[in-house]
Amino acid sequence: MLDPYDTGRFSLFGEHEVADFAPNFTAASLAREPAFDAAILGNSTSELLDPARLTALTGLRFVSLSIYGTGPVEQLAVARWLVRHHQHPGEALKALVIGLDTKWCRGDGRLEQLNPFPFWLYSDSWLTYVTHLVNLKAFEAAEQRVELLLGLTPPVRADGHRKGYEAGRVWDASIPAADFVAGTGGFDPLGSNFAAADQLSDLFREVAPETEVVLLFVPRHHSSLLPPGSEAARDEDACKARYGSLAARRPRTVVVDLLQDGPIAREDRNFWDRVHYRAPIARLIEADIADALRGLASQEPRQAGSVR
Predict the structure, then answer these.
(1) Domain of 190: which CATH number?
(2) CB half-sphere exposure, 26, CA atoms < 13 A
(3) Is the per-residue pLDDT at 305 higher than 70?
């Protein structure tokens, strides 16, 4: 009856509010909130994007559903849950921003789940949900739900924003410098069979045609970029072209490519490590997203997307 994760199943309480759990649990509540008509999806490389700032820049009502440690499989599960809960007349999503990192460019046809994820929470099956509530963590969540309803514990921020890598940290040049030395290590295998792109194409069939979609290749430090002209770099270009092709085929869809060498990638102070940019860069990315959405809004309804 408590519906501890606020999924809308069985609950006697109508409030769209959930305690400050880990984001892979809170997203189930946030994604079904009808007050939002735009969303950010991704992992820790998208966490610093502030939905409140995007709301101010675009006039849309953004929620952040970025979940650290996730890849395409988990993010697409959240995306489908989000879309299913915004299908009623007048509730269709107006915008969807999906942060793409190297996991979306894995080219060997495999989609891996690297960390545990509660797929049962985003299932269509109520039975699956109830079955998985019979565990200690769910009882702890129920206790927190009671405390939330009694005003004894604060809810997660209403728009889902978390400070991510900025939380409680002070930038120290020596720490990222040690990571920069490691270079390009840690990239997922490349190739030409981009299974994540195929899964995203399937998701697009469920997304309302009027929804504006931004596919965002997030920036990285130049030490992690692939050597120009290398086979791996050509594979990465092929991956970007694959998502560009998806954007070209779907109306109101655009690719914003910030995964490239340039002033952002070359400035060490822009990054916590090879992968995670800092807040000032997030502000620039938010402006790019807003520009892209304004461009999509000006398109004719049946016009295909593009690449920025």
Answers:
(1) 3.40.50.1110
(2) 22
(3) no
Q: Coil, helix or strand for 83?
A: helix
Angstrom distance (rounded) from CA 197 to CA 103: 11
SS (H, E, C) 193-258: ECHHHHHHHHHHCCCCCCCEEEEEECCCCHHHCCCCCCHHHHHHHHHHHHHHHHHHHCECEEEEEC
Task: Mention every residue, 6+ apart, whose C-beta is less than 8 A from residue 282.
Answer: 48, 49, 50
Domain tally, the chain: 1
* Cβ-proximal residues to 61 (8 Å cutoff; 6+ apart), any chain: 35, 36, 37, 38, 55
Residue 232 within any structural domain of the chain: yes
Is 0.85 surpassed by the pTM of this model? yes
78: helix, strand or coil: helix
DSSP 277: B
Domain span at residue 175 reads 33-121+159-307
- Chain segment 117-157, per-residue pLDDT in tens: 999 999 988 889 888 887 767 777 777 777 777 777 777 88
Give kind and range of the element (H or E) at residue 137.
helix 136-149
